[in-house]
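If you are new to this repository, start here. Below is one unmodified record pulled from the training split, so you can see the exact layout before writing a loader.
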Amino acid sequence: MISSRYLDALVTAPSIEELWKLHTQRMESYGFDRLLYGFTRYRSGASLGDPDDFVILTNHPDSYTDGFIRGGLYKHAPMTKWAMDNEGACSWRVMAERIARDTLSDEEKQVVAFNLSHKVHAGYSISFRSISPRSKGAIALTARPDMVQDQVDAIWDEHGRDIQVMNNIVHLKVMTLPHFGQSRMLTKRQREVLEWVGDGKTTQDIATLLGLTVATVEKHMRLAREALSVETTAQAVLKAAFQNQMFVLEP
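And here is the target side for that same chain:
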């Protein structure tokens, strides 16, 4: 049973770092010692958008994430495809069944081989309910290398409901905290300028309010656009809002 004390610690965590530390420790107590969480607000059709805009949280070693995320293997992973089309939890037994039926594509077989080389062979995936057609979040819970899928399924039979609830809470909490994907964090001045733009102020208004020249305000806007990898200031305001970088109380 989930303790109210633990739930309170999750919902009041002041940063993603503290939230992730609490969650990885708790999941490890169930046998899931490696987690990979991903969230995007830039899904379009079969594409999840630019990986630089993903929110990625993981305690996998770099040797794994370099290949799976940066190397682009996630695009062909069978469980990624499952998460794109479904919500809820799914045992990795479905991959073993597809392997037995020889229904994996060559790209999927490459992902499976990569996972096996990193002892990623037993676990569960959870696909979270989307808040918009362009958003998608999911987490892969990888069991300890010494465990097999039968053991994982037995754990899920006993504790799966609690595990799924905890992961849903963590997912919802992540969306309330500042996060930057792979992007560079905005400076305080860049945030201030975008906040005033979001309030409908002109460049001249912002210069007066902040005691700056118009040229300096325009420079901060340009740097904010570059940091967020967007073309317009309106896009910068939207992305900064998505990442909870605007109108956020200082810790």
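Two things worth knowing about this chain: The chain has two domains: 4-174, 188-242. The chain is about 50% helix and 10% strand.
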